[in-house]
Amino acid sequence: MTGKAAFVYSDELLNYHFHPDHPFNQKRVLLTKELLEAAGQLNEDDLITPRVATDRELALFHDTAYMEALKKASNGLLSENKGLEFGIGTEDTPIFPGMHEAAAALTGASLTAVDAVLQGKVKHAFNSGGGLHHGLKRKAAGFCIYNDGAVAIKYIREKYNARVLYVDTDAHHGDGVQWAFYDDPNVCTFSIHETGRYLFPGTGNVSERGIKDGHGYAFNLPIDAFTEDESFLQLYESAFREIAAYFQPDVIVTQNGADAHCYDPLTHLCATTIIYEKIPKLAHTLAHQYCDGKWIALGGGGYDIWRVVPRAWAQVWNVMKTGEALTGELPASWLEKWQQEAPRPLPAQWQDGSDIVPDIPRKQDITEKNALMLEQLLKYTKLPNSDKRS
Amino acid sequence: MLVEEIMKREVIHLQADATIAEALQLLERHHIRHIPIVDESLAVTGIVSDRDLRDASPSVFNLEDSEHELNHPLDSIMSQPVVTVHPLDFVEEIARIFYEQEFAALPVVQNNQLVGIVTEKDMLHTLIQLTGTNVQSSHIEVKVPHRPGILPEVASLFGKRNVNIVSVLIYPFKDDPNFKILVFRIQTMNPLPLLEDLREAGYELMWPNTLPEGNQ
């Protein structure tokens, strides 16, 4: 690790595996790494090996009773009823051997990224295995066991006392992280996501703004089903800039879920690779503008693991490493190797053509509703901003 | 659902000889808008709202006489008789009272004693719970013919997929009496297998699941 960015990776991150038919599949992490290696963007010097999160670290956010239940489930010793109380053993988060260890490894990888950045070894770090934003204090939910983002931010608060801006561009609302810091004025959360009217978890309304001392430090932009690139980016860019100016963070943590793409089977948004170039670019710019570059990126959702996630996450790293996204052909060796396993033809280019987006009849309405949502949110970033740092 | 499950049991109340000034202080201190008036045996004899009290308060342009006006007893302004409900009434019944009579709070009375109060806000909170949006869940709407047995037919598909249902609502379909919209909130982030089952069984899915196989 000699550059200004670090890529957190070990094969242990692939152990977070529910069963072969489960939509959450960490082969994405491997596909991303190999894509970057084949493109000549990632070498030994860029990699850091993650550590495993300790019980004490997990307990920064999670309930110990929940952790104990997970350890039992990990060894096949948890009864079905007891599991359901903690959301363990459901269709979304079924039990698998070693689940506690696998989840603690993902969380440790996010802590490794935090330490690398906040100890000044690098400016930016990426744990594509993390971003499990639905995990609650004492409940597994939405494919997430431990909420590595929430644990990492608690850890930043405790160890480095830095003010954190968390930006979540997953198509699902970043509810677990939001609730974790809902009353905390030193952690500002911003989630842009498909409206919860239809989509899991159902929350993330623009009116959710934090409570007690944390009031004014939670931001939500729910956008309409079938939103396309242009409207998504208009909202993301205006809101992120305004919120960063309002909050003046010391460090930025992004959750880079890649499920807003029109190929994604679980959501109804209609974006293309364009947003996956612009999302990390703005995070990069604002991290340099406000935080001396300090930026930690996490993975997240993303259920077209072949055609979407590897390209989307590789661009996060490309921007970290060079400030720019890659264009043109994908490396032939990567395509050749993985096409055999992929159920559909892999795209040959870094960029999608505009022809992949289906024709959406209500495009004008969607754009207009989204713009109104942005207007509502921006009212809250215009408050007098005195003594934020006291 | 019964009124006793949603009512507040700690009721701020006063007697009829208390003054307007005392009532105003209570509203302020407890952030409430209604005060039931009771006699010595806790029987409800009247109710005052924040609007009654403001109407009876001196104008801000004319504060000299305020002492006198604020010392009037509450029985000079309280509304009576009072519509009250019983702890074992159904929540949907009292929703009708809120809607038709335009009250914003109803005292709950049992054995001729004040035992609780239900406000419009409590009612709305209950409705939010009924919709299931307060629990992490996905939302699916299915258009079905309006005929006996349709609900268990559709619901059995959820059971087969081992998906927990948080709430079920049945809406009319526009003005067509031959169809209904079933709205399910289900406790999963991955409704895909279920959506496929529903399509395969021939049910019509509503927005935004109208395109087959997501949007590809």
How would you characterize the overall build of this protein?
The complex is a heterodimer of chains A (390) and B (216). By secondary structure, chain A is an alpha/beta fold. Chain A has one domain: Histone deacetylase domain (Arginase, Chain A, 3-Layer(aba) Sandwich), CATH 3.40.800.20. Helices cover 38% and strands 10% of the residues of chain A. Chain A is built from 12 helices and 8 strands. Chain A has helices at residues 27-38, 55-58, 64-74, 80-85, 99-118, 148-160, 175-180, 229-247, 273-291, 309-322, 332-339, 363-379, and strands at residues 5-8, 47-48, 124-127, 164-168, 187-194, 218-223, 251-255, 295-298. An 8-stranded parallel beta sheet of chain A has the order 2-1-3-8-7-4-5-6, sandwiched between helices. In chain A, helix 1 packs antiparallel against helix 11 (332-339), helix 8 packs parallel to helix 9 (273-291) and helix 8 packs parallel to helix 12. Chain A is globular and about 50 Å long. The two termini of chain A are 36 Å apart. The relative contact order of chain A is 0.14. In chain B, 32% of the residues lie in helices and 26% in strands. The longest helix of chain B has 12 residues, at 120-131. Chain B has helices at 3-6, 20-30, 50-56, 66-70, 91-101, 120-131, 150-160, 192-200; strands spanning 14-15, 34-38, 44-49, 105-110, 113-119, 138-145, 165-173, 176-186, 204-205. Chain B has a 4-stranded antiparallel beta sheet with strand order 7-8-6-9, covered by helices on one side. Chain B has a 3-stranded mixed beta sheet with strand order 1-2-3. In chain B, strands 4-5 form a two-stranded antiparallel sheet. Chain B is of the alpha+beta class and 216 residues long. Chain B has 2 domains: 3-128, CBS-domain (Roll); 134-207, Alpha-Beta Plaits (2-Layer Sandwich). Chain B contains 8 helices and 9 strands. In chain B, a hairpin with a 2-residue loop joins strand 4 and strand 5 (113-119). The mean pLDDT of chain B is 91. At the A-B interface, loops of A face strand 6 of B.
